[in-house]
Hints:
alpha+beta; about 25% helix; Alpha-D-Glucose-1,6-Bisphosphate, Chain A, domain 4; 4 helices
Amino acid sequence: MEFFGLADIRTNETRLQQCLRLERLPEFCSGISSLVKHISEFEGEVYCMWGHFALRKENINGGVRFTMPTCPNSLAWTVTTGFPPHPEQVVVHCTINRTEHHPEFIASIEEFVAMWVRGLEASPELAQGCDTPTPHSLGGLNALDK
Length: 146
């Protein structure tokens, strides 16, 4: 089964690959609670809305792919940009290895994709770049946080 979400945010492949690090995923998706174990830049274990799973990250054309190799449904998702029909938006594409499933589980995957979309759209960092300080107002003055 496939699930799609579109985030209305202008960014690029490099920013997605830099910002969507395993240890930062809870900042971008509230369905991922924590990084339980950090094995490498591209491998770890997370606690998410379905429980505790191994997670792998792969940099791909247009962004990143995440896979849960121990998930019984082989859940995987990509976060990419720059492709038709919506090259100016970020596409969240999630799949499982089933042609049908319980309605509650399908609804939870749809919500997971929606959480990604909300988290991506809420991130000024993705639009500016992860190495660019985010401006914050200080009563009429601007300060930069790193």
